[in-house]
Amino acid sequence: MENPARRPKILIIYTGGTIGMIESPETHTLEPFDFSHLIDNVPKIKLLNYQIDSVSLDPPIDSSNMNPEHWRKIAKVIGKNHRDYDGFVILHGTDTMAYTASALSFMLENLSKPVIITGSQLPIGEVRTDGEENLITALQIAADTTAGNIPMVQEVAILFENYLWRGNRSTKMSADNFNAFKSNNYPALAKIGLDIHYNVDALYRTTERRPLRVHTTLETGVLFIDLFPGITEQSLRHQLSTPGVRGIVLKTFGAGNAPTAKWFIDSISDAIKDGKVIVNVTQCVNGGVQHLYQSSDGLVSAGIVSGHDITAEAAITKLMYLFGLGLTPQDVAEHFGHSICGELSE
Ligand code: ASP
Prior knowledge:
alpha/beta, 4-stranded parallel β-sheet, 26% helix, 22% strand, globular, binds aspartic acid
């Protein structure tokens, strides 16, 4: 329920993405366009009677170009304006939305206000756009409060079409479906129909109220290694020894399984002895890493860290964040398995 006594104050952070794109007359492909074009296409916003301000990335980008420098800028904007606004709506391309949501969830320590990320599959100027509805619903969620008048959502979340998902649990599942996101290992935070039905038990709540702390140092020496039948020792060792790499997310089979060949385990073990942190994350969209099969014994004894049921997006950004805190590889490995803000089930 919104508090009728005052107008909710929301800050929109426009980063780009399909929602604000227009077709280039030269190439006939979609390119990012400015915020005024976007907002002019949603006159219904005025019906909300909110106080809405906006800031924009300059220039707005296709989210395929998103990087940690942009995350720093976004996190700083939220940090600077945190006291003055009831909630934040980030307009973002869908391609890397789950990475941004995950990164921000770690960077915004002790967040107690809504940071709702949304975008669309069709540009806002298109007749059948999903952008208008997504933007309006995101604003409503950012303004919603509980009966006790505290923010309903106190975390980074993705609003897309019919669902609100925890940001660091989300994955882009479809390149063309309006319901493009899902958190496969965590229930929806809200279901959007005629009304917004919150799944109150699933919403993140901190036990202690502490001031927001914005972390802006992220380690970029991280990478994914995706296993496949036929991967060679040469290619695996080459990737593991990429210069500057400190943290690796190893995407394994099923419940966290991998080849048992000696060369494979030795390669992993050598990289860990060399000071790298390697996290085991399943390639499956559903479920997580469990030490069930003999085919995961070698990885466990080599010192791999279990990612449990974390998403790949949250795993890579969590490594960036933990190394960014200045922790030693041992401490990063130790902290990784514990939930920071609801990103994994321990
Ligand atoms: N390429 C676009 C982006 O991520 C796709 C989208 O927004 O849906 O910016």
